[in-house]
């Protein structure tokens, strides 16, 4: 009933391959072998008698083009390319990273071919690294310049005279290849603005000549043993922030009283550290009191008018009470215990300064025998418009005082008609409840 029909099964196609078959033209051609069989055009009869059977030569390995380009041809580890900062250390983010190994190898090869000085150079570099000089190997003196100045300590008047003469070869800071330099002075440790003095600015020069004398008042012999004078050379920039060029530091303990010492020092880039704050913590309370400031007071008892003449000459290194880093100081004096209006005086207000100069005198009519029972209260205030004035510091002179305050009052009583001047440290003790 059913007829059987034969079915033809087709052969499945070959699996897909990325490589072409071996008989395509993409294979590398092989040269013909000289020992191959004779050409098919030669008739078999002309070939002569049959020779003994010779095994065919091994067929050479056939490599496709894709396999040829897939061969790993990497020559080895790739060394880092030297950066510009390897040749100019000042662009480094300190501490400096060592140079690439390839640079060191090149130096060694040069040393082998050179005159034998390579070992000396390596030894010198090793010594610099041990002494910590490698980080400052760039020639700072050449780039920053030198500063010439004089220092003189006048112990009798408690003054430090700083004469800034000139600078040479300063580093160019402006686009015209010049600079607008000035010099800033600070006494460390201490408040920066209270101890800051500065010279005038000279325009467009790398060799400025100032010949200016800046004076620090209220400097005692004790200060000369603990203070350090910092002189910074900066570039004035009206459109932006002033730029720091370099600085020098002088320990005042090396300066003798009455001797004018000349300095000619190379400017350096010293890291900005809080040296003043660290020393203030170590030395303790006296420095904390000194940060309130100092005041120069003169006392004179006039026997002809039977009056005490109090002179408020100047203040120095006052504490800053305003947000701009300065104060608007004035001085109040009160003779206790008399609380009348004649016992209270007030100086004028000096705007925006921490080193005001008053040179004002006030007289109290009091018998000499009653003066020993009196106490002179001196207080320094910061004037605030429309607000309560801020108390900066004060000092009391009288028979119950101690130290220089008692000595000053005693000399005024002893030497009638002689003006006696003393510097006194302002403290927060005995601050009035209101101004």
TrEMBL record:
Stretches of Basic and acidic residues bias are at 101-129
- Biased composition, class Low complexity, residue ranges: 1-10, 19-39
> Could you name the domain of life of the organism this protein comes from?
Eukaryota
Protein's recorded name: C2 domain-containing protein
Residue ranges annotated as compositionally biased, kind Pro residues, are: 40-60
Key words, A-Z: Calcium, Metal-binding, Repeat
Cite the record's Acidic residues compositional bias ranges.
Answer: 130-140
Region described as Disordered: spans on this chain: 1-61, 98-140
Under SMART domains, the record lists: C2 (SM00239)
Q: Where is the C2 domain?
A: 143-265, 291-424
């Amino acid at each position: 009933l059913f007829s059987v029909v034969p079915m033809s099964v087709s052969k499945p196609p070959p699996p897909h391959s990325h490589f072409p078959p071996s008989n395509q033209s993409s294979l590398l051609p092989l040269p013909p072998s000289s020992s191959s069989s004779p050409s098919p055009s030669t008739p078999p009869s002309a070939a002569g008698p049959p020779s003994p059977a010779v095994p065919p030569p091994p067929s050479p390995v056939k490599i496709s083009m894709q396999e040829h380009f897939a061969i790993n041809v990497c020559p080895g580890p790739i060394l880092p390319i030297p950066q510009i900062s390897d040749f100019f250390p000042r662009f480094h983010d300190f501490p400096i990273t060592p140079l690439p190994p390839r640079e060191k190898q090149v130096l060694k090869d040069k040393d082998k071919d050179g005159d034998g000085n390579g070992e000396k150079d390596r030894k010198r570099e090793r010594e610099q690294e041990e002494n910590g000089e490698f980080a400052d190997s760039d020639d700072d003196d050449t780039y920053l310049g030198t500063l010439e100045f004089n220092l003189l300590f006048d112990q009798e008047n408690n003054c430090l005279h700083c004469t800034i003469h000139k600078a040479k070869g300063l580093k160019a800071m402006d686009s015209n290849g010049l600079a607008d330099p000035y010099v800033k002075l600070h006494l460390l440790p201490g408040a920066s603005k209270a101890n800051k003095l500065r010279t005038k600015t000279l325009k467009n020069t790398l060799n400025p000549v100032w010949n200016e004398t800046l004076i620090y008042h209220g400097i005692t012999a004790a200060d000369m043993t603990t203070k350090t004078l910092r002189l910074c050379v900066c570039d004035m920039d009206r459109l932006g922030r002033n730029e720091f060029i370099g600085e020098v530091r002088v320990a005042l303990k090396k300066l003798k009283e009455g001797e004018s010492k000349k300095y000619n020092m190379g400017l350096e880039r010293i890291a900005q550290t809080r040296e003043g704050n660290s020393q203030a913590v170590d030395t303790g309370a006296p420095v904390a009191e000194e940060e309130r400031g100092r005041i120069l007071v003169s006392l004179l008892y006039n026997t002809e008018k039977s009056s005490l003449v109090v002179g408020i000459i100047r203040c120095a290194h006052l504490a800053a009470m305003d947000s701009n880093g300065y104060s608007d100081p004035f001085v109040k004096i009160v003779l206790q215990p008399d609380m009348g209006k004649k016992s209270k005086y007030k100086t004028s207000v000096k705007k925006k300064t921490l080193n005001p100069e008053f040179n004002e005198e006030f007289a109290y009519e009091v018998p000499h025998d009653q003066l020993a029972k009196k106490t002179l209260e001196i207080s320094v205030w910061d004037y605030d418009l429309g607000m309560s004035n801020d108390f900066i510091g004060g000092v009391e002179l009288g028979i119950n005082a101690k130290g220089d305050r008692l000595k000053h009052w005693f000399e005024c009583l002893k030497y009638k008609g002689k003006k006696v001047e003393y510097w006194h440290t302002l403290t927060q003790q005995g601050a009035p409840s209101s101004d």
